[in-house]
Amino acid sequence: MPKNDIKVALIGNPNTGKTSLFNQLTGLNQKVGNYPGVTVDKKEGVSKLSSTQNALITDLPGTYSINPTSLDESIVLKTLLKKDIKESPDVILVVADVENLKRNLLLFSQIKDLEIPTVLAINMVDQMHRKGISIDLSLLKKELNTEVVLISARKNEGINDVKEAIIRCHVAAKASPLCGINSKIDTDYFDRLKEISPNYSLYELWLMVTQSSFPETVTKEEKRSF
Predict the structure, then answer these.
(1) In a shared domain, residues 129 and 160
(2) 3-state class of 78 per DSSP?
(3) Which of 9, 12, 185, 210 could pair covalently with 95 via S-S, beta carbons 3.0-4.6 A apart?
(4) Are residues 136 and 40 in the same domain?
């Protein structure tokens, strides 16, 4: 992979049109392998974002949450917690279904709390008029503090908007959580966690502790301190 390619992790609930968006972004530039040690498909593809910028898109398994209760969800969590500069995503592209936006935003909120630059693509917007749905896009962007685009992956609408949003998100390289969990549960405990492993966001540390899922970069001494 060329050094300047943006690494994008594509994530979403099942049946949100995530695979359709992956196909639109990557076309025929796809390959399928397996995640290490399991037979779950790992789909990757190259997307030409602009005349000078490409992205390597990894289509992660469909998931409702990054608090794993299944193998697929465990794979998603381990992928997002990686700190290897060659593998960890630069940008996360979350796909939501316009008819189930409230449910889909649970996953989005968890992703945002990882403090990785995130784009939210709201899919199936061709159904909005028929379903009587309206979205104040400017207000949603402001409330979520993230790039938000409206798309119809099935009809190839808004795909260029997604590409432009990925570039803007990567250039800005800023990410902030939706919620400060340290102020809602136990401030002293989370302050101590942050001192032990300052390279991770608070939500990443919380997931490691609650799921007993530690990246290889976390030392044995740090694990014992948790």
Answers:
(1) yes
(2) helix
(3) 12
(4) yes
